[in-house]
């Protein structure tokens, strides 16, 4: 029996370090206005992992949480970022005051080995996709979530 895959990740300054165990439940791109602003780009990109798959190795005390209440779903999102360099680390949905069972971990913070790439399986909030940005071939698309 082989050991589960371990994927390291870190913020830009290196103070926040984590390790993911196993594969994401879903790797997705989000075109919603809030993910665009949080990522500082045309879309947010990340993988959804159970909390049990995410282990912080250092810098968890450096994380700041932005409580995003202006969401399409009406659910509160905890958007975690490094307080030193500002790197977006994760997003966790909060329902009735309780964090959901997992988090979206920013694809941009993964420290992938040479030759390995992060590939999305789904695009959400395509209704907000920038008009000149092409669709991703072979990736499922949804107008909202």
UniProtKB/TrEMBL annotation:
PROSITE patterns per record: CENP_V_GFA
Q: Name one GO molecular function term.
A: metal ion binding
- Which parts of the sequence belong to the CENP-V/GFA domain? 7-119
Q: Which UniProt keywords apply?
A: Lyase, Metal-binding, Zinc
Source taxon at top rank: Eukaryota
On whether Repeat is a keyword of this UniProt record, the answer is: no
The record's InterPro entries line, in alphabetical order, gives: CENP-V/GFA, Mss4-like_sf
Alphabetical list of PANTHER family matching this protein: DUF636 DOMAIN PROTEIN (AFU_ORTHOLOGUE AFUA_6G11530), GFA DOMAIN-CONTAINING PROTEIN
Q: Which family does it belong to?
A: Belongs to the Gfa family.
Name of this chain's protein: CENP-V/GFA domain-containing protein
Source organism of this protein record: Penicillium malachiteum
């Amino acid at each position: 029996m082989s050991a589960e895959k371990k994927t390291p990740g870190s913020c830009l300054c290196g103070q926040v370090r984590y390790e993911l165990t196993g594969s994401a439940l879903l790797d997705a791109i989000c075109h919603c206005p809030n993910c665009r602003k949080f990522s500082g780009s045309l879309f947010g990109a990340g993988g959804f992992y159970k909390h049990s798959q995410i282990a912080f190795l250092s810098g968890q005390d450096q994380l700041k949480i932005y409580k995003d209440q202006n969401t399409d779903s009406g659910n509160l999102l905890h958007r975690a970022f490094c307080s030193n360099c500002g790197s977006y680390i994760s997003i966790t949905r909060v329902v009735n005051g309780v964090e959901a069972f997992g988090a979206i971990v920013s694809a941009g913070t993964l420290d992938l080995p040479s030759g390995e790439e992060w590939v999305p399986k789904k695009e959400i909030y395509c209704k907000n996709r920038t008009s000149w940005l092409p669709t991703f071939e072979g990736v499922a698309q949804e107008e909202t979530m």
